[in-house]
Design goal:
heterodimer, A: mainly alpha, B: mainly alpha, two-stranded antiparallel ribbon, globular
Chain lengths: 484, 603
């Protein structure tokens, strides 16, 4: 099969980016913002639909890229996240940055292109390049909020700070990753992931692997590399944060699975302790630091840090089942966390602000939004029949069966502690009076975005079977390809 | 799909349908009464279906399971979803739906004063709760049971916190949910270990002794939380902040009973571990005695009943620990009826006198003869007076425990029987006899039929249900024939003595409490167990969180700032470009890298 055909999906998203650029350039600014936004929605939906008809598999570019069930599952996840992010942001972007709306969508598409490429990357160089293609647009996107204060004549420093932090930390971690990459490929004389499996790791190569782990760790936002997360979430636009908090993280964990489970799985004695430490610290620090938060975005930020800790449990389980469970967890997390952020966004736009207090009386003034928030929070907390229940059960099961009992016990205990702050959110929404807050007015696209997240959370929660099968197939495809 | 399982499925789905309709149609929910009627119709349907399933089972005597694969994947078949109708689940389903139905009908009158919107919301929560509980009861494996278990936790949170404008109620809801949820991690560990060892979530697995002990001990941890056993009983008294019918529902037949039900359900696993059973026996008897002592000194009628519930659950757990599965289950069944009766009668009284304090009641038997009669029947049944429901099941529990572990649990339970009769006698004499304490009590009136009907039904059941022990045992494949023994005579003698003592102390008008009770009161007031946990949570968790936040903010940043100052002193312009903190984060990145490198060197 020709390389172009196998690479069709990243190419399609790339082509969509170009198309969006043309539309943006050729139409007058005020109208173009919304138009490009809808083009993104339509284009990504069409691409997502096409994945169900285009059936390609196999390596391309001399094995640097591979189209397989694993690749496809991740790509679908990123496309779905993109569609929801576009729906959730289309009104906000057009209203806040009418002149620069086109740029927003181009950057978002560029980032998604990087993710779709990353999913198929089976070569370290391509993987890192894809990672950067995904990451660099995000720095710019985080800075869009900096003009928010201009209209009111207030200069808010926070958005610039948020973007700068994301950028500086991101750039530094890229440097770390590249240094690790250089050490690893230099010592093993291999860039292909399946070639790494065969070589025993020299100490310098181990250092390289660990530096790459650290570099990815920053992007994913696990402790101790988590410090940018709450600040950036608080400073950037919430519809963008909804995307930032899930898609790049899912991509980061997927990249970790590809590099460490597929590439370095045989040499796990060298890096597994470090990964387990990251997982433990993330679960502990995330859950504990979320407790005293009063800003919903910061609370969700620390909750996200903890959730990434659970995801790393699946990676640490090493092997097909672990990879499958990780993928399941990521799918669950993408829809759940996006939904939660979008509800927070809708409420904040309705005049409540981003504080937990702004959620007060939500059950009375917006029962639909409150019910959606309830489902998302219950899913994050791992309560049936939301998909998060299965996700958590799965990663714990995978880790337990891989012999990581101690880590699972710590994780379950910390998760039980975490219930406390999730309950704070529910308590604000369900057990307080509105006291002067009106019902938020939610635009149709945002409603649709929240509805899609809700459908996924409840649908996969009630019928997890197909998703379990799909993730198992994907993990099988990823890890048996190595044996081939 | 066989008839019995289709009936059971209907029993699960009918309340779910009512809840769905109420969730989907806010307009209907806000109407109030129609929503309540829909919910009651759902419960009535569920009860009818449960009864049909039970009679079908009584006819065929073969357990039936209907299930669909829920989770299957290559190399990983996780679980089925479905219904199982057998001698444990079918009677339990009938008890749960019947008590829920009574409580809902009673609520029509009790919650009448609420706004329409709140009224509708209340019944929507009830429908959701009944669905969750039924999912738990009919589950064919422990995974579905766990799912139902968690749902029960969530919906109980909504019900307990129903009066959320009262800070105590909101606090109680959080506490109940969190304590039980914390204990639930035991269930999760137990399931993980069970699945790893046996490859399924069934309860029939044969495990090695060590694994069996681990699995059952972990399951029992969840039971301790849900069934409010010492030392995790602390949430139950607080949960009395919920509306009284909710207390009747949660604390008689459903939520707290779920823990005992889990042990009955997973009896084959518990049979494999002597150690766990010994732990259960000790926990159960300690809880029974401890909670009975605390019940002596409560002045809030609901709190007396709350501690009494803890105490009776201790009886059940002790029976299960002694190896008598049927003893625990039988007491669960009888207790469900008379405790629901007591709570509802208490609700009727509270509704009439506008107070929970027994000191503000008095003479109510004359003003409210039906409620008074119902309460007295419930109290006598609870006290184990011969002929009433509690007598038979309590006797079976005592018989099972007798002679175990040097007879200490047996003695504790006998003492509990005496104390139970005494504290119930106290409530009856103070609240229902003597002179009215105030105008409210003097002018108390019976309520409408929606509140009286359930009382009559439950009172009847509290009298007769004990005689069905043999049938219940037969359904579950156990052997049980009541025979009057010395132990039974001793227990009922103690019960009567307790009532007599209560009459001597409280029967002739209000009196100073005896010295011994005042001492218990002082101990109870100290809230030692609660304070222990509060200390644990506040001091340890929050301090840890604060410390981490502090380290995050000051130590790490401080180190970094110091580096920053050094850099600045060296003439770098690094600090000019930024907002103050960003380079710190980058330095944090580098510190992390250095740590990684150092670790490799050490390795």
């Amino acid at each position: 099969m020709s390389d172009l055909l196998i690479l069709w999906l990243p190419l399609a998203v790339g082509a969509l980016t170009v198309l969006a650029l043309l539309v943006d350039a050729l139409s007058p600014p005020p109208a173009s913002g919304r138009a490009v936004g809808w083009l993104v929605v339509a284009g990504l939906t069409a691409t997502l639909g096409a994945t169900f008809f285009v059936d390609v598999a196999g390596p391309a570019a001399h094995g640097a890229y591979e189209a397989s069930a694993w690749t496809l599952a991740l790509q679908r996840l990123f496309l779905a996240a993109g569609v929801i992010a576009a729906l959730g942001g289309v009104d906000h972007v057009a209203a806040r940055a009418p002149k620069r709306a086109g740029e927003y969508w181009l950057l978002l598409l560029a980032s998604i292109t990087g993710m779709t490429l990353l999913a198929g990357a089976r070569d370290l160089i391509l993987l890192v390049v894809a990672f950067e293609l995904m990451g660099i647009p995000l720095y710019v996107l985080a800075a869009f909020a900096k003009t928010d204060g201009d209209r009111a004549g207030v200069r808010d420093r926070r958005p610039s700070e948020a973007a700068l932090k994301l950028y500086l930390v991101g750039a530094t971690s890229t440097a770390v990753t590249l240094f690790g990459l250089a050490l690893l490929t230099g010592m093993t004389c291999a860039t292909r992931l399946d070639a790494l499996t065969a070589t025993p790791l020299q100490p310098l190569a181990t250092l390289g692997a660990l530096l790459m782990l650290a570099g990815f760790g920053y992007k994913v936002g696990v402790v101790p590399f988590h410090m940018w997360v709450p600040d950036t979430y608080q400073g950037a636009w919430t519809p963008f944060v909804a995307f930032l908090s899930v898609a790049p993280k899912a991509a980061g964990v997927a990249a970790l699975t590809q590099v460490f489970v597929l590439g370095l799985g045989a040499q796990h004695d060298r890096w597994l302790p470090a990964l387990m430490m990251l997982a433990f610290l993330s679960m502990a620090v995330g859950n504990l630091l979320a407790l005293p938060q009063t800003d919903a975005r910061r609370l969700l930020a620390y909750s996200g840090v903890a959730q990434m800790g659970y995801a790393l449990l699946g990676v640490a389980a090493i092997g097909e089942q672990g990879a499958a469970m990780t993928l399941f967890f990521l799918t669950s997390y993408v829809f759940t966390n996006m939904g939660a952020f979008l509800v927070v966004h809708a409420v904040a736009e309705g005049g409540g602000g981003h504080d937990l207090d702004g959620l007060r009386g939500l059950a009375g003034r917006a029962p639909g939004l409150a019910a959606a928030l309830l489902c998302f929070i219950l899913s994050l907390a791992g309560i049936p029949f939301a998909v998060g229940f299965w996700a958590k059960l799965y990663v714990f099961l995978a880790a337990w069966q891989a012999g990581l009992g101690g880590l699972v016990i710590a994780g379950v205990a910390l998760a039980a502690l975490g219930i406390f702050y999730y309950l704070q959110v529910l308590r604000a929404a369900y057990m307080t009076d509105a006291r002067g807050l009106a019902a938020p007015v939610v635009g149709a696209p945002l409603k649709l975005a929240i509805g899609l997240c809700l459908a996924a959370v409840l649908g996969f929660g009630l019928w997890p079977g197909p998703l379990v099968e799909g993730t198992a197939r994907a993990a099988h495809a990823l890890l048996t390809a190595a044996a081939r | 799909m066989s008839p019995a399982s289709s009936f059971a499925l209907v029993a699960v789905l009918a309340p779910a349908l009512a809840a769905l309709v109420l969730a989907a149609l806010p307009a209907l929910r806000r109407q109030g009464t129609p929503a309540a009627m829909l919910c009651i119709a759902g419960s009535l349907g569920a009860f009818g279906a449960a009864l049909a399933a039970l009679s079908r089972l009584a006819h065929t005597h073969t357990p039936e399971t209907w299930s669909r694969p829920w989770l299957q994947a290559a190399g990983l078949s996780l679980a089925d979803v479905g219904v199982r109708v057998d001698g444990t689940s079918a009677p339990m389903l009938v008890v749960v739906t019947l008590v829920a139905l009574c409580v809902q009908v009673f609520s029509l009158g009790y919650m009448h004063g609420e706004s329409r919107e709140a009224f509708g919301r209340y019944f929507a929560y009830h429908a959701l709760f009944l669905f969750s509980m039924n999912v738990l009861v009919v589950s064919p494996n422990l995974l579905q049971l766990f799912a139902g278990w968690e749902l029960v936790g969530v919906t109980s949170y909504l019900l307990i916190g129903f009066y959320y404008r009262k800070p105590e109620a909101a606090h109680a809801a959080v506490k109940a949910f969190w304590v039980t949820r914390f204990a639930d991690m035991g269930l999760l560990f137990g399931l993980l270990a069970l699945f790893t060892a046996s490859g399924s979530f069934g309860w029939e697995a044969q495990l090695s002794p060590a694994v069996a002990t681990f699995v059952t001990l972990m399951l029992f941890l969840a039971v301790v939380g849900k069934s409010a056993q010492f030392p995790l009983h602390i949430w139950l008294p607080n949960a009395m902040e919920g509306p009284t019918p909710v207390s009747a529902l949660l604390h008689a037949a459903t939520m707290v009973a779920a823990g005992v039900f889990l042990v009955v359900r997973a009896a084959p696993l518990f049979a494999q571990s002597e150690t766990t059973r010994a732990v259960m026996l000790v926990t159960g008897s300690v809880t029974a005695l401890f909670a009975a002592c605390l019940a002596l000194v409560q002045t809030d009628i609901k709190k007396v009943l709350a501690y009494s519930t803890c105490s009776q659950l201790g009886y059940m757990v002790a029976a299960l620990g002694a190896g008598s599965v049927f003893g625990g289950f039988f007491h669960l069944t009888t207790h469900a009826f008379f405790k629901a009766l007591l709570f509802l009668a208490a609700g009727s009284v509270i509704h009439a006198v506008h107070s929970n304090e027994i000191g503000k009641m008095g003479g109510l038997a004359r003003r409210m003869p039906l409620t008074g009669g119902a309460f007295i029947i419930g109290a006598l049944a609870l006290a184990g007076v011969p002929g009433l429901a509690g007598f038979f099941s309590k006797d079976l529990v005592l018989e099972a425990v007798e002679g175990k572990l040097g007879s200490l649990p047996w003695i504790a339970l006998l003492a509990t029987a005496f104390l139970t009769a005494f504290y119930m006698g106290r409530v009856v004499f103070v609240a229902f006899f003597g002179a009215p304490a105030n105008d409210h009590a003097a002018h108390a009136k019976e309520h409408g039929w929606s509140m009286r009907g359930p009382l009559v039904l439950l009172a009847t059941l509290s009298v007769v249900v004990g005689y069905f022990g043999g049938d219940l045992a037969h359904l579950g494949g156990h052997a049980y024939h009541f025979h009057f023994t010395g132990g039974a005579a001793l227990a009922s003698g103690l019960g009567l003595a307790g009532i007599g003592l209560a009459y001597a102390v409280y029967g002739r008008g209000p009196r100073e409490a005896p010295a011994i009770i005042a001492t218990v009161d002082r101990i109870a007031q100290s809230r030692a167990v609660n304070r222990f946990y509060e200390f644990g949570f506040r001091r340890v968790t929050l301090v840890a969180a604060d410390a981490l936040a502090w380290i995050d903010r000051y130590v790490v940043d401080g180190l970094i700032n110091m580096t920053g100052y050094v850099t600045l002193a060296l003439g770098s312009r690094a600090r000019k470009i930024q907002t103050g903190e960003a380079p710190d984060y980058v330095l944090a990145v580098m510190l992390g890298v250095v740590a990684m490198a150092a670790w490799v060197v050490v390795q």
